[in-house]
């Protein structure tokens, strides 16, 4: 395993986006300590709000610095564990950043608004960063039809974040059934680090 000067502290809850960060930690080969943060009352406690004033997980602390937001955590881990080979090459860099931020911004907002029953009018679509839910899905679908991974034929850290959006979306019905999405998710689910990280979170899930 690649190591860093100090151990990472990982704040998470198994029923959260922390699953994305855990997968990223495993792909990076990071040694980490975890702290499970319960929704009530831990996330709104003074102790945790000092880590993330938003009262959300995940968060990591490394070398006395806090990183929140799943996309940021993914990129940070790829950077501090370069031996894992998850950073983009010069030719991959444009796709890497473009699709990471597309998934973190327009795509997630489109899904969230749809879940709330919000559908922008034609006029509102001009101002909405995602345009429409259908447009966002069509754009990602078109991109994934011609490649195995976000940046082409090689897995990068962008696939942890974008792939998690697709994987969860298909599982929970917030993404439409598209051949490109299904094939992409299936490739990711076969990864050893995906399976290992999911097993940990599944074991931590509340029962009963």
Structural features, described:
With 208 residues, this protein is α+β, with helices and mostly antiparallel strands. The chain has 2 domains: 89 residues, 3-Layer(aba) Sandwich (Glutaredoxin), CATH 3.40.30.10; 99 residues, Glutathione S-transferase Yfyf (Class Pi), Chain A, domain 2. 51% of the residues lie in helices and 9% in strands. The protein has a 4-stranded mixed sheet, with helices on one face. The longest helix is centred in the middle third of the chain and has 23 residues. 34% of the residues are buried.
Helix fraction by DSSP (H/I, runs of at least 4):
40-55%
Major sheet size, sense and barrel closure: 4 strands, mixed
Strand content: 5-15%
What is the oligomer described by this structure?
single chain
Structural class: alpha+beta
In short:
This protein has 208 residues and is α+β, with helices and mostly antiparallel strands.
Topology, pairings included?
Layout: E1 8-12, H1 18-28, E2 32-36, H2 46-49, E3 59-62, E4 65-68, H3 70-80, H4 93-115, H5 122-125, H6 133-145, H7 157-172, H8 179-189, H9 192-204
Parallel strand pairs: 1-2
Antiparallel strand pairs: 1-3, 3-4
Helix pairs in contact: 1-3, 1-7, 1-9, 3-7, 4-7, 6-8, 7-8
Descriptive labels:
51% helix, 208 residues, Glutaredoxin, Glutathione S-transferase Yfyf (Class Pi), Chain A, domain 2, 9 helices, alpha+beta
